[in-house]
Amino acid sequence: MLKFILNRLLMALPTIVLVAVTVFILIRFIPGDPAALMLGDMAQPDQIAAMRTELGLDKSMPQQFIIWAGNVLQGDFGRSIVNGEAVLPLVASRFLVSAEIVVVAVFLASLIAVPAGLIAAWRQNSLTDLALVGTATILLSVPTFWLGLLLLLFFGLKLGWLPVLGYVSIGSNIIAGLLYLVLPIMTLVIHEMGVLIRMARASTLEVLRLDYITHARAKGLSEGAVLWRHAFKNAFGPTWTMIGLILGNLLGGIAVIETVFTIPGLGRLMVDSIFARDYPVIQGCLLFVSLSYVLVNLVVDLLYPLFDPRVVAE
């Protein structure tokens, strides 16, 4: 098991280095000069040049990258060009807001969708199967921003059950904080259920065709025992991988939901920083998201043998 963990860690390191280089290079293609943007339209060329020197933008890209990477390894992600705030605490606080929504949404979606996919596979080609697959396809096809607006309109404006826009920290007010998170979480749960139902159904169908399932039935086991004791454990591996991918994707791609519900999360911070040409914050956000994605997939790989007995962690 130790060798398995070390191999996965060694495989993750080149990915992290490649991500860091890619993040640094790509944001340099964002049009606009941060120094000119900070000083305004009335700034003189010598003022802009002095500001570029202060920000280190007058150096070559390799020099800028080496300085930035060295600081990052020491936990210094720089300071925001816009407000001078330290990037790492800012990104971490916004990330926690996004994680509250994403982790709960993925957990609830998995709790509902995995049993639904199992039932759809068990009742293949029946009315139940067609209903579940049709529902999953519709949910998968609906854009999250449109679904969020519909839920906001119905539960927030029409019924008045939930707050429409804004955010309250759970630490400051638990009840109000939970109420503000209901609609964003509900939006993600409904959308991601479509993906997970189809994945759980496909992997379960593959397992149900194997010989040991026929043997289990021949021994006289009930269908419930066959499904939960034999089919589910072997079919959950691919679904577990999909859950990890969804979790990683949502942590970096929740900007649309945060914009719809005006939630001050990481995605919203990234969008605002792009408009402000705030290089240090953009780099911090992208690097934080990328590292989170790599970490989530690493955890999925390490836990995979627990969910699929056919995989041996050597």
TrEMBL record:
CDD domains: TM_PBP2. It holds the Pfam family BPD_transp_1_N. One of its GO terms (cellular component) is plasma membrane. Its main location: membrane. One of its GO terms (biological process) is transmembrane transport. InterPro entries: BPD_transp_1_N, MetI-like, MetI-like_sf. Belongs to the binding-protein-dependent transport system permease family. This is Peptide/nickel transport system permease protein. Keywords: Cell membrane, Membrane, Transmembrane, Transmembrane helix, Transport. Residues 95-304 form the ABC transmembrane type-1 domain. It is found in: Cell membrane. It is a multi-pass membrane protein. It comes from the Bacteria. The lineage of its organism: Bacteria, Pseudomonadati, Pseudomonadota, Alphaproteobacteria, Hyphomicrobiales. The chain crosses the membrane at residues 9-30, 95-118, 130-155, 167-190, 239-261, 281-304. The keyword Metal-binding does not apply.
